[in-house]
UniProtKB/TrEMBL annotation:
<feature type="domain" description="UBA">
    <location>
        <begin position="31"/>
        <end position="75"/>
    </location>
</feature>
<protein>
    <recommendedName>
        <fullName>Ecdysteroid-phosphate phosphatase</fullName>
    </recommendedName>
</protein>
<dbReference type="Pfam" id="PF14604">
    <property type="entry name" value="SH3_9"/>
</dbReference>
<dbReference type="GO" id="GO:0102531">
    <property type="term" value="F:ecdysteroid-phosphate phosphatase activity"/>
</dbReference>
<keyword id="KW-0904">Protein phosphatase</keyword>
<keyword id="KW-0963">Cytoplasm</keyword>
<dbReference type="Pfam" id="PF22562">
    <property type="entry name" value="UBA_7"/>
</dbReference>
<dbReference type="GO" id="GO:0005829">
    <property type="term" value="C:cytosol"/>
</dbReference>
<feature type="domain" description="SH3">
    <location>
        <begin position="284"/>
        <end position="349"/>
    </location>
</feature>
<dbReference type="InterPro" id="IPR029033">
    <property type="entry name" value="His_PPase_superfam"/>
</dbReference>
<dbReference type="Pfam" id="PF00300">
    <property type="entry name" value="His_Phos_1"/>
</dbReference>
<keyword id="KW-0728">SH3 domain</keyword>
<feature type="compositionally biased region" description="Low complexity">
    <location>
        <begin position="377"/>
        <end position="387"/>
    </location>
</feature>
<dbReference type="InterPro" id="IPR009060">
    <property type="entry name" value="UBA-like_sf"/>
</dbReference>
<dbReference type="InterPro" id="IPR001452">
    <property type="entry name" value="SH3_domain"/>
</dbReference>
<dbReference type="InterPro" id="IPR015940">
    <property type="entry name" value="UBA"/>
</dbReference>
<keyword id="KW-0378">Hydrolase</keyword>
């Protein structure tokens, strides 16, 4: 029958038309793929400098864009925000389940009976690799290497670690049995080998220096791991790997602590985890205290205290303070100042660490816990509880800092400088109403982000694209053929990136669409960033109006200055330089917000919104009729429209969520008259294109 059907479809050698399918009422929508940007790339697109983005991701354990951006907002005034001191990393093996509950109960009881000792300063652990330093850009590799090591065949144990108790007048704890100690040392060595190529060059001497971080390494010869023509000498002490229960305690407490240790059952079956932590180098040599009462400074040298924050205090300052006021540094903000010690209490140092990764090293069925261990008791100090309860960044699920904290930081910045733009905006509203003669007409404000920029596409491009004499050399077809001369040369371009050819093409497409839609533009304002000037110029080219409309360079359209440390603020091209380069610039225009005012600004997020709103209102009042085009940055679409449509400024964390969804050459349209404005669908379709990786012809060799 199938053959007959096939034959019936052909008559005289010609195909008979098949019956046409009826149209579907609800066709499947075309799926528009999005670029798979990493959190680091998103932070760069949001306008954060490269080193700050790397520092924020490392400090928050690469837990996502939101937490990293909130960290940057909280640390906006941190004096070491732009310091390149690396974080310090440490590799632990930590118990879980019933055995962990036993240890936490022991910690609490020992604190209540005997007070603080050295063991309370850290979460229960066995140290595999002591503190070592690594640059922020390698933080993610350090974490992923743990998973790589444990995915190797035979890496996972099928039994729990065997421990042997040990007690002396100055130390109590468990040592790892030899068979499992050797296993843990092999894991540590494999981990160091895995990460060594990323954080240090592949030379024996440097690798040997890193292995000095092994707490169980000595210089005597015992076992050797070959490496080229030389070897690393290690002596895996039989009982060197240990879990500390108590140390640095007076002899008078020995019997009490001994009795508590004897209650522990080290044979209980439990799963163990590799955990990679890091800490702020400012913690080194300090004690960590937790804020239990808020405090508002009354003097300029005092530190604001927020409940739940951690503070780094030196033991010398605590011991020598005559009035119980000590100098400390905030974990939350990085700021330092004097504070009342009585508003704080000591907590575990590891509470202020960042957990980067945890991976199981064994797979066993944990012993059932017949009775939930009570972790809290009446009269227990929260100092002891803090060593039990994980800190914000030590949790498995890390949530972003609460909005009130971010708002408090913004209010702190707000006290530095009054919101003078707020009054100016009211003035602009009145000017707009008074200037309209007769029946008011609807006006359009088009707000646009710049196109694709070179530095986000090619990374560190300047060293490769300028020769020894400072001349620009094109290294990719997506780079412009020529770059105009400017004061500062290649150093200026490093801070003020141009567009790629794709970026200029994107902008021309937008201009062509505006022309096709019969959209008219009467007034053009542009951020002084060169990428924005190029975008604006390309839009006008697409509209065939480049020679008709003058571009007004407005510094008030630049990005939020909190994202820019002083040394990274660009030296923008002057109107004269831009005109010489072929751009149609209004050289007689007087900016609404001066360049110097922008560079001297210490604005909070609300002030950033008000500054942008002031520019928008001023542009409308300066030219009471006609449509306005504003070309700026990612946040410009929101900050320049927010006040106009009658909404309050967003918080810093809210703004960062919004701007993650604003790609290159996005456009917003605000339409209205007098003081009634609304967002409308923009006349341009979305502009989507794939990521085209760089081709290296040598792969064909």
């Amino acid at each position: 029958m199938f053959v007959n059907l096939k034959k019936s479809q052909f008559q005289n050698g010609h195909a008979v038309a098949m019956a046409s399918l009826p149209p579907r009422r609800n066709p499947t929508p075309t799926k528009i793929s999005k670029q798979n940007l990493t959190p680091f790339q998103i932070l760069l697109q949001m306008g954060f400098p490269k080193h700050r983005a790397e520092k924020a991701l490392a400090a928050t354990g690469h837990r996502g864009v939101q937490l990293a951006s909130d960290w940057l907002l909280a640390h906006v005034n941190d004096p070491l925000l732009d310091d390149n001191s690396p974080r310090e990393y440490i590799l632990y093996v930590c118990p879980t389940g019933t055995f962990l509950n036993q240890l936490q109960s022991f910690w609490l009881k020992s604190f209540n009976l005997c007070g603080w000792n050295g063991a309370h300063n850290f979460t229960p652990h066995i140290t595999l690799v002591s503190f070592f330093k690594a640059p922020d850009e390698d933080a993610l590799h350090l974490a992923l290497s743990l998973k790589t090591v444990m995915e190797r065949q035979g890496a996972v144990l099928n039994e729990s670690l065997k421990l042997e108790s040990y007690m002396s007048p100055n130390f109590m704890g468990f040592f790892v049995a030899e068979e499992h100690a050797d296993y843990l040392k092999r894991i540590a060595m494999q981990y160091v080998k895995e990460v060594s190529n990323a954080i240090i060059s592949d030379t024996y001497e440097q690798f040997d220096a890193l292995t000095a971080c092994f707490p169980w390494c000595t210089t005597t010869t015992a076992r050797c791991i070959p490496r080229g023509s030389r070897s690393i000498n290690l002596e895996p002490h039989v009982k060197s790997l240990h879990l500390t229960l108590a140390y640095q305690f007076p002899n008078s407490q020995y019997q009490q602590l001994k009795a508590l240790v004897e209650e522990l059952d080290s044979n209980v079956s439990c799963n163990w985890e590799l955990r990679l932590y890091s800490r702020d180098p400012r913690i080194t040599g300090k004690q960590v205290y937790k804020v239990i009462h808020p405090y508002t400074p009354t003097e300029c040298d005092e530190l604001e205290l927020r409940t739940g924050d951690y503070l780094y205090l030196s033991s010398e300052a605590l011991a020598n303070s005559p009035d119980c006021w000590v100098e400390g540094t905030s974990w939350l903000t990085g700021l330092s100042g004097l504070l009342p010690e009585s508003y704080t209490e000591r907590t575990a140092e590891s509470d202020a660490w960042t957990l980067h990764k945890k991976v199981s090293i064994n797979s066993v069925t944990p012993t059932a816990n017949p009775k939930q261990v009570e972790l809290k008791s009446s009269g227990a100090s929260s100092a002891s509880n803090s060593s039990i309860e994980p800190s914000v960044l030590n949790n498995e699920e890390v949530s972003a800092p609460s909005p009130p904290i971010v708002q408090e930081i913004e209010m702190e910045l707000g006290s530095i400088k009054e919101n003078f733009y707020e009054n100016l905006i009211d003035i602009q509203r009145h000017i707009m109403a008074e200037d309209v003669v007769g029946e008011p007409t609807y006006r359009n404000v088009f707000i646009m982000r710049h196109g694709e920029r070179i530095d986000f596409t090619f990374g560190s491009w300047v060293p490769y694209c300028f020769d020894e004499t400072g001349n620009y050399v094109r290294k990719d077809l997506n780079m412009p053929k020529l770059l105009p001369e400017r004061k500062g040369g290649q150093k200026a371009y490093a801070k003020d990136s141009p567009l790629t050819n794709m970026g200029m093409f994107q902008a021309r497409l937008v201009g062509e669409t505006l022309k096709d839609q019969n959209i008219t533009i009467d007034h053009v304002y542009c951020s002084p960033s060169f990428r924005c000037v190029q975008t604006c110029d390309s839009v006008l080219q697409g509209m065939h109006r480049k020679n008709e409309l003058l571009i007004k360079i407005e510094p008030g359209l630049f990005e939020w200055m909190a994202w820019y440390p002083p040394e990274t603020v660009p030296d923008w091209m002057t109107p004269e330089e831009l005109t010489k380069a072929g751009y149609n610039i209004d050289e007689n225009y007087v900016a609404m917000v001066s360049e110097q005012e922008i560079k001297d600004s210490r604005e909070n997020c609300e002030q950033f919104y008000l500054r942008s709103a002031f520019v928008t209102r001023s542009a409308l009042s300066s030219d009471p009729r006609g449509n306005v085009l504003l070309v700026g940055h990612t946040a410009t679409l929101d900050t320049c429209s927010r006040e106009l449509i009658g909404k309050k400024p967003r918080s810093g964390s809210e703004m960062t969520k919004v701007i993650q969804k604003i790609p290159y050459c996005s456009m917003a349209l605000v339409r209205g008259k007098e003081d009634k404005w609304e967002l409308h669908e923009p006349p341009c379709l979305p502009l989507t294109h794939s990521v085209n990786q760089r081709f290296d012809w040598k792969v064909l060799l």
